[in-house]
Amino acid sequence: MAQFIQGLELSRLYYLEAVKPILDAHFPDLRYDAALIGSGSEVLGFDTARSTDHHWGCRVMLFLSEADHTRCAPEMDAALRRELPHRFRGYATSMTPDAGEPWVLHFDEGRTAGEVAHFNSIRTLSDFLQEALEWDGVTPLDVTDWLTFPQQNLRVLTAGGVWYSGLGAVERVRQQLAYFPHDVWLYLLAAGWARIGQEEAFVGRGGEVGDELGSRVITARLIRDLMFLCFLMEKVYAPYPKWYGTGFARLTCAPTLTPIFHRALSAQHWQQREAHLCHAYETIAKLHNALGVTDPLPTDVTRYHGRPFNVIHGDRFADALIKVITDPEVKHIAQQPLIGSIDQFSDNTDFRANLRKREALKALYR
């Protein structure tokens, strides 16, 4: 068995040592970008040996201009098939469809002679972006575009690596998508705090009537929303749910907050749950003040409108953030129901993956 190499490093080495020499020999004057971005745990740097069981391997994404793609792509593919090695760093370079699930690719260990069924892609950046975001990479982005792009899609486009920038197109788009515009960011922070304000009292209210299960569910929901706020505060796109905790662990605030979250989730009684959540609220309220985007707000929890439940009053933070938004379009959207982005009003996987519905979703903000 090959010694495990994380996919990003494997891709970089594969490009430099196997793919690039072939392209240099046959297409010395061709301008292209070589990268590994888009779907795949290796793009995020989260892959392990387990990841190698499907859709993982020696691969590079080669991006050409429209004209060069029409002119050169078939020849490039043929040259790579002829001349790539059958193994690289211990891994088979050919891939084969699964017998039962033909859309799933595995290493083709049996192919040791003849053409390599390589795992590289040769395409235009505009075609790739249409598939990834339903955006051509050229049309200027407006506020509703940013609000309907799932963060997991933005993360995998701005993560990964660029191994060669002959066109410069991939780097240009990655810089453009690096993070939300300032006032969109403020709006998302406001929507995040509003979600906290809507449910923070229910941990105690459910527990008070003996609904410990309901109290636990609300606790988990609040922790997810607090984690989302932390991603926003550190200006890091939140990843796909499978990698949510893994991604959160890499945030600066994670060493402080993770033990608090664990204690809240494992607490046996609602009073303990609430106490740990309050610790988290106060910690994150201090992080908000450290951003300096609003006047400092009180960071101590207080009673919920006279009821015996302690809360941070997330609506106070939402209101303060909305007041400092200056972009007219964002300001208009913030005066409507505070639904936030697609990630904040829906966690349905199929809904967020169906990017062809983005135009319809934009109507929610108009």
Q: What is the structure about, briefly put?
A:
The chain is of the alpha+beta class and 366 residues long. The chain has 18 helices and ten strands.
3D architecture notes:
With 366 residues, the chain is α+β, with helices and mostly antiparallel strands. 52% of the residues lie in helices and 10% in strands. The protein has 18 helices and ten strands. The chain has helices at residues 7-26, 41-44, 66-83, 125-133, 143-148, 151-158, 169-176, 182-199, 202-208, 212-233, 244-248, 254-266, 270-291, 314-323, 328-334, 342-345, 349-353, 358-362; strands at 33-36, 61-64, 87-88, 91-92, 95-97, 105-107, 121-124, 161-165, 302-304, 307-311.
- Work out the radius of gyration: 24 Å
Largest sheet: spatial strand order = 7-2-1-8
The 3D shape can be described as elongated
Euclidean distance between termini CA atoms: 56 Å
DSSP strand (E) fraction?
5-15%
- Structural class label: alpha+beta
Largest sheet, in brief, is: 4 strands, mixed
Give the tally of β-strands.
Answer: 10
Helix content: 40-55%
| Low-pLDDT residue intervals, each spanning 5 or more residues | none
What string, H for helix and E for strand, traces the elements in order?
HEHEHEEEEEHHHEHHHHHHHEEHHHHH
Oligomer: single chain
